[in-house]
């Protein structure tokens, strides 16, 4: 049976997790959150965070469109974003790379220069890795981090009536990719969002003490709201008109004949943060960092999240990107 | 310039490390040992070990020869072996896998069943990972571990006159691979050594308090002795006749017209441990675990290691496997 036939990537992961030795008193969160959370010393000592991301040529990066520095930056930032989504701070990085036999040494060095630039920005130290040969260029980064137990934002921590907030406008990376695939030239703004996305480490640690649940928008807003609902056993409503879209994302939608909300709801790799927060805490957070965008709220019922249009029409919230669909 | 032109995999790694932010007071050993060693609490608290290995279809495993459980066992054991080589104990595992779109769900489950079997053997917990799609099946495992500072065996810790010891006979995995590639059918013993190698966690923690330097034999004895010499700034002599070879490795050499010592010196993936130990400590260790094999000794001069034949002829010790040569 093929992976698409059992329901795709997340169904596969569920089956795999069920079969593995993955329970331990010190494993506070394992597979199913942005990063694993491990107790390495008795609390209130900081907890350890671990995330790992596997990036494959032509799937996560395209050597025709992306300069090697950009490939490196994106590889680093998508991992840093996973640590940011827990409310944590990244610390130690491990880089595995599989290169073609014909790979140019200078090209490889530039990938690492891009990774290094992101690491230096956040004080991350590269502590090891692996190199090997493959017909498909592949990069795996494992990133460790640290977080105070009181600041930890798990996907399962959302509460009924929490506001659903995002840290910035969505859909730019997916809009750029759609334009590129159709032979258009994206604007500089869209191209930068696609080729060198930035994690929101700049605000993550400010948000964490106020937020309940947090997740990074790597597979589209629809999928991420769905993850929070499923892990928190709650529902949610997202208001279509409240989804922040940059004017160039709207223009890209018009050029391609696509509803630009689809880029935000179903496109990947925005790396903005989606968090839930009690309404009364929002003014306190807004004094420390802004602007954030309210896109909906959590609801008490344990049911699939819904999308509410301007005219009050309610429909199922579309899911996000699946690597095997 | 191609990777082979600058001197291969290790020359590439040296260049990459030099360009990256990789120095920190709490990073006791980084790239260049079997695992990174990180101080996470003031000593004498245990140190954290981290290793990562990237395995590529047709390079590290062959789907024609290996059952999926065997692929999983090998992927897990080669990482566990890196923790064993530091003298440590493995704890938390993270598994990234890139699968073909056509991958069969049951085949994937069996890979994870193999990984799980090895994890259960050593009490390792699978705490996370990533799944994606690729034309080349690729597995990256990151494994964390723990070690008491007093037991830590770095490659740089060898001392002049230390004995060079190995924990078992060498070359079986390479002999099996050579036979397979030439269309022969290896014996059950050789095939098992190649397809489901076992780390030497069973003796690693017993050896660690007595040994100075330790490394696992993953790229051939020649390469590993070279690593210890370079990191310890010492020389070494290996006695050709002292290299332990199983009778079936000798038979494979005869069948293929190859000196069977070449399998041990230049072949990969034996996963026995190579360690250096002061001669006076060896009787104490031998009482706790045995048999080990003395293959040579460290010398005081900071120079390339040598191979001494039975007739006293001295030559450069051949290097090991390079992924880009």
Summary, kept brief:
The structure is a homodimer of 325-residue chains. By secondary structure, the first copy, chain A, is of the alpha+beta class.
- Strand-and-helix sequence of chain A, N→C? HEEEHEHEEEHHHEHEHHEHEEE
| First-residue to last-residue Cα separation of chain A | 14 Å
Overall 3D form of chain A: globular
Category from helices, strands and their pairing of chain A: alpha+beta
Largest sheet of chain A: 7 strands, mixed
Could you characterize the architecture of this molecule?
The structure is a homodimer of 325-residue chains. With 325 residues, the first copy, chain A, is an alpha+beta fold. The first copy, chain A, has 2 domains: 34-150, PurM-like, N-terminal domain (60s Ribosomal Protein L30, Chain: A, 2-Layer Sandwich), CATH 3.30.1330.10; 153-316, Phosphoribosyl-aminoimidazole Synthetase, Chain A, domain 2. Chain A has 10 helices and 13 strands. In chain A, helix 3 (105-122) links the parallel strand 4 (89-99) and strand 5 (125-133). Chain A starts with 8 loop residues before the first helix and ends in a 9-residue tail after the last strand. The model of chain A has no long low-confidence stretch (mean pLDDT 92).
């Amino acid at each position: 049976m093929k992976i698409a036939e059992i329901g795709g990537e997340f169904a596969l992961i569920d089956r795999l997790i069920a079969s593995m030795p993955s329970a331990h008193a010190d494993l506070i969160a394992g597979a199913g959150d942005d990063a694993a959370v491990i107790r390495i010393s008795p609390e209130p000592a900081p907890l350890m965070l671990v995330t790992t991301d596997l990036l494959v040529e032509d799937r996560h990066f395209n050597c025709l469109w992306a300069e090697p520095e950009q490939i490196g930056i994106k590889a680093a930032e998508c991992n840093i974003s996973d640590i940011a989504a827990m409310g944590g701070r990244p610390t130690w990085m491990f880089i595995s790379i599989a290169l073609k036999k014909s790979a140019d040494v200078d090209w490889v060095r530039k990938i690492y220069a891009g990774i290094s630039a992101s690491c230096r920005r956040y004080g991350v130290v590269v502590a090891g890795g692996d190199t090997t040969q493959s017909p498909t260029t592949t990069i795996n980064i494992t990133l460790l981090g640290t977080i105070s137990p009181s600041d930890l934002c798990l996907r399962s921590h959302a509460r009924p009536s929490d506001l659903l907030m995002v840290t910035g406008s969505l859909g730019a990376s997916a809009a750029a990719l759609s334009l590129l695939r159709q032979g258009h030239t994206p604007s500089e703004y869209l191209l930068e969002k696609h080729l060198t996305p930035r994690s929101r480490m700049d605000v993550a640690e400010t948000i964490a003490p106020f937020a309940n649940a947090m997740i990074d928008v790597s597979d589209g807003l629809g999928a991420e709201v769905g993850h929070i609902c499923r892990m928190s056993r709650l529902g949610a409503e997202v208001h279509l008109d409240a989804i922040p879209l940059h004017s160039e994302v709207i223009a890209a939608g018009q050029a391609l004949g696509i509803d630009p909300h689809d880029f935000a709801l179903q496109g990947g790799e925005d790396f903005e943060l989606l968090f839930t927060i009690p309404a009364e805490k929002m003014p306190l957070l807004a004094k420390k960092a802004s602007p954030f965008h309210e896109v909906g709220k959590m609801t008490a019922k344990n049911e699939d999240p819904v999308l509410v249009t301007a005219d009050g029409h309610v429909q199922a919230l579309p899911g996000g990107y699946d690597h095997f669909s």
